[in-house]
Each structure stands twice: as C-alpha cells, then as structure tokens.
Amino acid sequence: MIASISVANNQNYLMKSYYHGDLEKPGLWIGSGAKTLGLKGEVKETEMGNLWDGYSPDGERKLVQNAGSSDRKKGDDITYSAPKSVSLAWAVADDDLKPELEAAQHRAVLDANQYLEENAAYTRRGKGGATQEKVGLVTAAFQHGTSREGDPQLHTHTLNLNIGTRDDGSTGSLDSQHLYDRKMAAGAVYRMRLATEVERLGFTTSRDEKGFFEVEGIPEEATKAFSTRSSQVTAHLKDRGLDDTPENRERAALITRPVKGKVNEEELRTRWQEKADAFGVTAESIRELQQRKVEQSEVERQQSQKLVIDSALEKCTRRNSVFKEHELDRAIADSSLGRGMTYDDMKGIKDGVLQSRKAVEVNGDKRNRCFTTLSASDEVANATQDKINEVAPHEKRRQQREERKKHRTEVQAQFDHRSAETGALDNRFSLSANQKDLVKREERPLNDGYVSQ
Q1: How would you classify the pairing of strands 213-215 and 205-207?
Q2: CB 227 within 8 A of CB 84
Q3: Sheet holding 323-324, edge to edge
Q4: Would you put residue 295 in left (φ > 0), alpha (ψ -120 to 50) or beta?
Q5: Mean pLDDT score across all residues of the chain
Q6: Nearest one of 115, 117, 185 to 329, comparing CA atoms
Q7: In terms of Cα–Cα distance, which of 2, 14, 12, 325 is closest to 139?
Q8: Is the sign of the CA dihedral 83, 86, 90, 91 positive or negative?
C-alpha cells in the first residue's frame, strides 16, 4: 500500500483494450499540464502514442528536443495501491458501493498527483540545464482491479509523461529525480486522503504497526488469503535476509512480479465471492460495517491539527535535528492519517508550522529546503543554562555567543552531511555541471538494489 515508481516502458500495457471492462477502466487525463495541452476525459490511443514519442497530442509539433528518439525516456509510472481490506470490500461490494470506493481511490490519487505537481515537477533550461523551472504534469491515470496473481487489488497507475508545461507556454522534458525523491511523501498523501474518503463512506479504519491503515471488521485471515503477491514479496525479503521496509518491498515487488495475463472478469468475480464467503465477507456484511459518519466540530478539528503538528515534528527530529522538506511533508501526511484530512488541509497545517516558526529553515535551495525545530535550536543552550547563570554578565554573554556559534556549526554539519548523501550540492563546492549531474545519476535508485535499515 505504498506508492511505487518505475520508468514507463510499455504504452501498450496501459492502453490494451480490456481496460475498458469493469475491472480495468479506461485511462483519464489529470494534471495541469494535460489541461494546458487540451487533454481531458478519457485517454485516447492516438493522443497517448504521440505524447509517448514526445510530440503534441495531434502529432504536429515537437514538445521536447529529442522527440521521436528511440532511446528517449518516455515517462515514469507511479502506482498507488489500496490496502487489502479496501480492495476486498470493493471486490464483493454491491453495485452502489463499488463505484463509491472507486471514486474514493481516484480522489486520493488526485491529491497525491497534485502534491507531486506542486513540489516535484521541474524541467531544465539554459546552458547545461543549469536552470530548473516548475512545470505542469501531463499524467494519465489508469485504475486497475487485480494483482498479477489474480487477487483483488484496487490500484492506479499514474503515467507521468516525460513532458512538462511551463508558465510561458513552452514545454520540456522533466527532471524526474524530484519525483523519486518525493515518492514516499506522495504515498503518504495518498493514504491520508484514501482513509478520509473511506471513513466518509461510513467505515472505521485503524492503523497497523507500519503506519498504514485497514478497514475494521474485515477479518485479517480474509485479507491474507487474498494477498498472494504480498506473501511472495515477504518470502523474497526473508530468503535474502533483508529488512521488511517500504523501500525494500517496492524493489522486491519489481523483481518478483510475474507477467500479468488477461482474465475472464465474470469467472474472476465469482471466484472472489466464493472465496470471501468462506470468511464471512459478503456484500451484506460489508454494508453492515458502514455507519453514519459524524463530522468533526471546529474545536475537534483544531485539536486534531495540533496533534498532527506535534506528531509530525517528533517524527522529523527522531533521528536528526535537521530534516528535509519532503520528510516534513511525509510526516504531516502520516500523522494526519485517520483524522479526516485532505491535501488542502495538509498544506494549511504545513503553512501554520512554518509561519509559527515551529520549524525554521536552515539551508538548502527552493527545491530541497532543510529545516530544524526551535526546540532543537534551544537544546544546547538549555543544557548549559544553569552554568551560564552562575557567571558574571559579560562572561555570560560571551558563553551565550559561543554556545550559539557551536550549535550553528553542528546544525550546518548535519545539513552538509545530509546534502552529501542526497546530492543536494550547495554553492560552496566548485564541481562542474557535468560532475554534479554524474553525482545525481549515481543516486538514482536501481530496480535490483535494496535499502536495509
């Protein structure tokens, strides 16, 4: 139930005809870049083919310099998967509830895509691509209903084509590294909004030990019985002695996934219903889980937002006193899970955190800002306050200056260390543009690599 990302390399997989059935729906255009190019509604094969090759939807003009090149990167496929209990509820739901769950999935995907567009959509410009500009995303969203093993799995592929639209009307290729940097935060935004939408339908949700959520009342034995792919990924990690982290599960899923074949929709749904019925999961039992949703009062909402802020800042400073902006975004979204929040609510909370200076910027550029908290900034001074109070006023002022200087040095050292880890090179280094690009390429995650904690 995380957002996974990989290089898109098969437009036919996304456009094949059976996507127009009940299980695999036709793609829909989303993103402001799609709107700028006049794309709306259902994805058409001809338009997709032209954009895939780097041309305008009508094929009349180039949108990127290397349009038509065989080795050109086409785009990135970011996939958002619902928790298994939501997928199982959708699989056995009646004809009224099923489209409501599909709409909940789509709204969650829209929030996640908007987050990426506002925070991770950049294109390069100028000599050596030295200048980066914000752009609109051209995204095709394909909602699917099955896993590669034939289990119910409500998920959406969002194909972010390697084309961005600038404010001046021009277009260019994306610098997709930002998408990779923000994928975990985007996944958290997706989960936050999906939980909100599921709760609005009257279901109760609960968080698991990993910070994900499930619908209460659906037996765990049932969700496990329909989680063939999850079991395969877990076994793959266990066999290799790897930690069961979201990053490792994503890579293992890519390595172990089988070819997805065409399915008979009627037979598949019959099989799902018969299997779910053995666990007491039916359309009727799912309806019984729905209750009337009571909206939060304004006081409750404010209290909830305060809890989100405190939890998010605690998450951010658990390991380091300096944290990146996308880590703050992810922490706010994670802490908002199950509290009725949307991406707009999350942005309001984040603005409040920054305006109140609960988190203060310490360094970084506009695409990769770094922050610390006031409590972290005061930590060193508080630890020595008693000693300072015992000395003469002039000595006290001198010691205060030294303590502040020492803390600034420590904070800067943490920032420099974290920047070196992620390739966020600051202006003090004299690396060439080619050297910086080489460093950034080395940071790109590999499909056969793992992250171990």
Answers
A1: antiparallel
A2: yes
A3: 323-324, 370-373, 359-363
A4: beta
A5: 82
A6: 185
A7: 14
A8: positive
Measure CA 184 to chain center. 4
Q: What is the 3-state secondary structure (H, E, C) of the chain?
A: CCEEEEECCCHHHHHCHHHHCCCCCCCEEECHHHHHCCCCCECCHHHHHHHHCCECCCCCCECCCCCCCCCCCCEEEEEEECCHHHHHHHHHCCCCHHHHHHHHHHHHHHHHHHHHHHHHCEEEECHHHCEEEECEEEEEEEEEEECCCCCEEEEEEEEEEEEEECCCCCEECECCHHHHHCHHHHHHHHHHHHHHHHHHCCCCEEECCCCCEEECCCCHHHHHHCCHHHHHHHHHHHHCCCCCCHHHHHHHHHHHCCCCCCCCHHHHHHHHHHHHHCCCCCHHHHHHHCCCCCCCCHHHHHHHHHHHHHHHHHHHCCCCCCEEHHHHHHHHHHHHCCCCCCHHHHHHHHHHHHHCCCEEEEECCCCCCEEEEHHHHHHHHHHCHHHHHCCCHHHHHHHHHHHHHHHHHHHHHHHHHHHHHHCCCCCCCCCCHHHHHHHHHHHCCCCCCCCCC
Nearest Cα to Cα of residue 92 among 278, 256, 242: 278
Domain boundaries, the chain: 3-289, 298-443
Residues 148-165 pLDDT 10s? 788 999 999 999 999 999
Per-residue pLDDT of the chain (453 residues; tens, 9 = 90+): 456 767 766 666 555 543 444 567 789 999 999 999 999 999 998 999 999 999 999 999 999 999 999 888 999 999 999 999 999 999 999 999 999 999 999 999 999 999 999 999 999 887 777 788 999 999 999 999 988 788 999 999 999 999 999 999 999 999 999 999 999 999 999 999 999 999 999 999 998 767 789 999 999 999 999 987 655 556 666 667 777 676 665 666 555 555 455 667 788 888 999 999 999 999 999 999 998 777 778 888 889 999 999 999 999 999 888 999 999 999 999 999 999 999 999 999 999 999 998 999 987 666 778 999 877 555 544 544 545 455 556 666 777 777 777 766 776 776 666 666 555 444 444 455 555 554 455 444 434 333 333
**Amino acid code (one letter) for 225:** A
pTM (2 d.p.): 0.78
Rounded to whole angstroms, the Cα distance separating 41 from 28 reads: 5
Structure-block tokens of residue 351: 């603005």
Token readout for 289 is 């889980």
